[in-house]
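Quick board copy: two proteins, each given as sequence then tokens.
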Amino acid sequence: MPPEVIASNATLIAERATLYHFGILTSSVHMAWVRAVCGRLEMRYRYSPSVYNNFPWPDATDEQKADIEKLAQAILDARLLFPDSSLADLYDPLSMPPKLLKAHRTLDAAVMKLYGFDSNVTEPEIVAELMERYKGLASK
């Protein structure tokens, strides 16, 4: 960021994050986790380190990680097609660009497969499975 930008105390970073991390964090699986465990400020989600640190990441091979990275890059590439649009504009459910929507759906399908979810799994089922995985990790 340029020097005139002043970050607030709510700024979070993930050191050494890769496109793989971006892909998982922008997937519908992670967003289901966010909706279940994230705090709120008014109606907005308040992401915190505990949301990230307690998220049960999938076990992925290097090849699977590379696939997720390609799909994550496709999302970034789709965003670049609209340089004058804000993220709020791009993610407006009524006017989301079809190419960006397709990129997200393709990524979501790959992340669901990585977790072993069926394509017609519901959000409550995703959250229940993630909680089971979290429980297993927390008990170690």
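And the next:
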Amino acid sequence: MTSNHTGNGRRLATFIAETKGRSLPPEVIDGARLCLADWLGVALGARDEPAGRIVRETVAGWNSTGGATVLFGAPAAAPFAALANGTLAHCLDFDDTYVAAVTHVSAPVWAAVLALGEETGADETAMLAAFVTGFEVASRVGAGLGEAVTARGWHGTGVFGRLGAAAAGATLLGLDAERALHALGAAATQTAGLVASFGTMAKPFHAGKAAMDGVVAAQLAANGFRAATGLLEAGGGLDGALVQDRAASIPEIEFGGWNILRNSFKPYAACHLTHPAIDAARALAARCNDIAGIGSIRAEIGALADKVTGGKSGAPSSPLEGKFDLKFCVALGLHGHEVSAADFREPWQADPAVCATAQKVTVAVSPAMGFASARLTLDDGDSVHVPVAKGHPGNPIGWDDMQRKFAALGAPVLGGRTETLFQVVRAFGDGGALSEMRAVLAEL
């Protein structure tokens, strides 16, 4: 390897290169399957989303050759399929989040794995292993840095998701440690994605572009491309550019345990930072007989939730805006909505009663509240504190919950084949699942 890197680059690259010989515990394999079920469910549910359609049509116009599946489109070259499918999987903002990195890992990494895996003829076991490697790389580089990056205006998915996609791609291409390190460097230098784009089509595009760039980075490295190899050290280039006040840096990378077992899944189709407040709102709704009669609602939330979602109007002009408006999401919960994908569909016409309730919500930052906690208090003193929102470690979503989520998202697209596809995904890695998935998806 070249000499302009130290521990982090070496450990990450070695971890990638050693994937093939690594034995994964059953619970880690199951975690990867759960991520795949979530990824596919939210992608299917996003069939009619304009951002996904536009990217898909743009990819089709490039007339690329390749055998990678594009959901709801014609097969394409792996980078372009990854772009289309990664975008689609993040359109509903209903996909999983690794909270410590504030990153939607599965959207870009599974998109990259499936596209490049199909193109290279990888089997299901290799794809699962590549996904786990990509997840562990993305989550470890982002751990402890994600909140600082987000607070400074960068989208963690566009930063760490790229690295995860590149790591997964390098795994599928069988890169040795030196070439894997250059793949990571090529991915890191493409870092992009602005929090200021949240609430527009550009946010899901961040996930798709991360998937595409990760695939391209791995392919370039496989052909001998050389990139900077010290970017992932503390103060080595990436963190210094993103967090210029040096208040946070990439941690020393160590591998032990599995971060994929601490992933979070969304029960609501809105920004993850709104979820604890939505949990509290739904709990209050269950015991409040007169929602319209509420005089005021005080929401105590964490600083990051306030920065991303708390300052909005409560009267969003589009469903994409609504997903990032904490006041509106709280009002949906108080009015008994499930805050599902159906609550954020086009054509958009926000319920006037919900918007009226949203105007009664005031937001306060509390140092006692973090990413997964919130407190709501009504003017009559009734209050609900959510210490850990549903879907996070400590209050997890399991296969039964995922089955319900998948069914709600998939049924409008697949009808009676929804349960069949879900069970196929649950068995991914046992052999035969990939061909069955292709057969069902080819009919869409």
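Board note added afterward: The chain has a mean pLDDT of 95.
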